[in-house]
Amino acid sequence: MKVYLNGEFLPLEEARVPVMDRGFVFGDGVYEVVPVYHRRPLAWERHWARLEHSLQGIRLANPLSREAWEQIVERLVAESEQADQSLYLQITRGVAPRDHGFPANIVPTVLAMSKPLAPPPQAWLQDGVQAVTRQDDRWLHCDLKTTALLANLLLRQQALDVGAVECILLRDGRLTEGAASNVVLVIDGTLVSPPRDHRMLAGITLELVMALAQRHGVTVQEREVTEAELRGAQEIWLTSSTREMLPVTRLDGVPVGTGKPGPVGQRLLAAYQALK
Ligand SMILES: Cc1ncc(COP(=O)(O)O)c(C=O)c1O
Known about the structure:
Layout: E1 2-5, E2 8-11, H1 22-26, E3 29-37, E4 40-41, H2 44-57, H3 66-79, E5 85-92, E6 109-116, H4 122-127, E7 129-135, H5 150-161, E8 166-171, E9 174-178, E10 182-187, E11 190-193, H6 204-215, E12 220-222, H7 227-232, E13 235-240, E14 244-251, E15 254-255, H8 263-275
Parallel strand pairs: 7-8, 7-14, 11-12
Antiparallel strand pairs: 1-2, 1-6, 3-4, 3-5, 5-6, 8-9, 10-11, 10-13, 13-14, 14-15
Helix pairs in contact: 6-8
Bound molecules: pyridoxal-5'-phosphate.
Pyridoxal-5'-phosphate binds next to α6 and β13.
């Protein structure tokens, strides 16, 4: 597998960054994950805009032009063995003596790589997955896709520890998102997702699914979702670039709706498959 690192394309095993990289020392960086189908990035424009938003949010200028990024992406995608890929882009503030303040004249570290993207296991789609709920104890800049993911990792692991696939988060009694996914619900036939603000990442898959819903005549609402509404939803679906749409059929051990993947989400999943 080839990666791009600071101007060079080289095998992953040969890619090195100094230990004083602020990405390593502080998690001082941002990233993007872009799904690629048939060697074409899906919704590149939106991922690009979100990368710029994340960079702005951590006060880091993009070290490369959009054209330069697109050339890197094109080459990685073309040279990857598989046509369906998960493309990973990361920018850290760069290498400097350890100090909290932003160093002057520092050169950011740029990494890009692509790995094969496999669809989620068939059993997950047929039977649905289990999720647990936890308090969302992350910071209040969850709209930024930063590499500092320890809070998300701790939450995801709590789900894995009990055999669940995702940890669904509640802040002040309101649904935010999953540890590494967004959450959409079907409530009285309407597709509902929480407001896209600083409490959650504005997921690109979520955006695409909401747009598909509108096109298919499903009413959509972006609004606050209470814990009671989450627990009483007819359907719960997780969305993310790498797992697409996953039905949650057990939440904290309790069946969701009928306990089977629901019809509204299934229609949208079919539409998403067609889109990709
Ligand atoms: C915290 C979090 N929320 C939401 C998402 C879904 O975003 P996207 O659909 O753009 O992959 C992710 C993606 O991994 C995530 O890490």
